[in-house]
Specification:
The protein is built from 1 helix and 17 strands. It is mainly beta and 208 residues long. The radius of gyration is 21 Å and the shape is globular.
Length: 208
């Protein structure tokens, strides 16, 4: 009798857990980014914002690095959540003067070598274009977003958005040739477990 009562209690707890699990389930969505000719787009920023104006869950910001090497910013494209600190180490043998005049983040790191004493905090959503006041051909892009669900597409134009709770989202994509004032391309996305999506941009992909 005792074992039967235990089994009934166990089954009741299991059924309650099983019923509640899908509500909080998380999944990964694989997004393929294509250009106007249907070709894969590497270095595209893809992110998903909860639909209906619901605030996305905040995650503790983790410091990111954009280095200067061979008179080049690496990586060319970075995406971060608002509030993320970015460090700009200079690994060249010459000094650089990193700056941005973008409304989302205006700053400058005057001529320096090595690693700056502190990172720059990117605290406003939008596109930030980086440059060097000494080397005019140096440029990079930071897309700051209000969601933890983001990524940059790989060589095959694919980005995988991990840890997404089931629900409805606005799936957005931005490419650096679109210009800093051009809005991201947007389309609806519904997540119910693992999934795939395709988003097309009216651009010509720049090969890596």
């Amino acid at each position: 009798m005792r074992s039967a009562r235990f089994l009934v209690s166990f089954l009741a707890v299991f059924l309650l857990w099983a019923a509640a699990w899908p509500l909080g389930a998380q999944a990964a969505v694989s997004v393929q980014v294509l250009d106007s000719a249907g070709q894969p787009v590497p270095n595209a920023v893809v992110y998903a914002e909860p639909a209906g104006g619901t605030a996305a869950p905040a995650k503790p910001p983790r410091q990111v690095e954009i280095e200067q090497k061979n008179k080049t910013f690496i990586p060319l494209v970075t995406v971060v959540q608002t509030g993320t600190p970015i460090l700009f180490p200079n690994h060249d043998t010459v000094r650089h003067h990193v700056y941005s005049f973008s409304p989302a983040k205006t700053f400058e790191l005057k001529l320096y070598s090595g690693v700056p004493g502190s990172p720059v905090v990117f605290d406003k959503a939008g596109t930030v274009v980086l440059g060097c006041n000494i080397h005019d051909d140096m440029v990079a892009y930071v897309q700051v977003v209000n969601t933890p669900h983001f990524g940059v597409s790989d060589r095959s134009g694919v980005v995988r958005l991990e840890g997404m709770p089931n629900g409805r989202y606005a799936l957005k994509a931005w490419y650096f040739t679109m210009g800093p004032n051009q809005a991201a391309v947007e389309q609806p996305l519904e997540v119910q477990g693992e999934g795939r999506a395709i988003i097309k941009l009216n651009v010509k992909a720049v090969p890596l």
